[in-house]
Amino acid sequence: xxxxxxxxxxxxxxxxxxxxxxxxxxxxxxxxxxxxxxxxxxxxxxxxxxxxxxxxxxxxxxxxxxxxxxxxxxxxxxxxxxxxxxxxxxxxxxxxxxxxxxxxxxxxxxxxxxxxxxxxxxxxxxxxx
Length: 129
Known about the structure:
CATH class of the largest domain: Mainly Alpha
Low-confidence stretches: none
CATH architecture of the largest domain: Orthogonal Bundle
Protein name: Helix-turn-helix transcriptional regulator
Structural class: mainly alpha
Radius of gyration: 21 Å
CATH topology of the largest domain: 434 Repressor (Amino-terminal Domain)
Strand content: under 5%
InterPro entries: Cro/C1-type_HTH (IPR001387), Lambda_DNA-bd_dom_sf (IPR010982)
Keywords: Coiled coil
Order of helices and strands: HHHHHH
Number of domains: 2
Organism: Danxiaibacter flavus
Oligomer: single chain
Domain HTH cro/C1-type: 7-62
């Protein structure tokens, strides 16, 4: 999950204004808006502030589970940091999803190559004229 989506969904669930959570994290409201709009990713110093605010080990592999735990926490901070095992599990899930997408793209490329080859050979192209 993109950090901007994580922050926006957390903020909405906790009914916090952008200015309030930006102040709590220690960043400008403008920066927070850019992240929420997915226009920018936080720089390392800001990533550290976000990580620290939520008491996370890392912000690289945010998941629905981590978001739910942060929302459920009274102050938004996890009482126990998410373990490295949890992070590795999330990473593995993301890698599996990436592999599925690569396979789908490879199938699309092969289908496009077949259409191109049929066109070059003068054969009818499905959906063509």
